[in-house]
Write a structure and sequence with these properties.
With 71 residues, the chain is α+β, with helices and mostly antiparallel strands. The protein has 1 helix and 5 strands.
Length: 71
């Protein structure tokens, strides 16, 4: 039973690779250089010139997106 609980706890916080594209909501134009940060760890990455990003996070983590000139 303990092993099963430990396995379930590990699955609940599994790390995964999150990929996506950061773009302006109204124009859909990419936002190059936007920061994507995992709130819990403060680790992050920067979007490419096409607005694409890839980051590792737990399935319960919150991602923060920041870019100069955007709110």
């Amino acid at each position: 039973l303990l092993v099963l609980l430990l396995l379930l706890a590990g699955a609940a916080t599994a790390q995964l690779r999150v990929t996506g594209s950061v773009s302006d909501a109204s124009s859909r134009r990419p936002i190059p250089g936007a920061s994507v940060i995992v709130q819990r760890t403060r680790l992050g990455t920067t979007a490419t010139a096409e607005g694409d990003f890839s980051i590792t996070a737990n399935n319960t983590d919150t991602l923060i997106f920041r870019a100069v000139g955007f709110k």
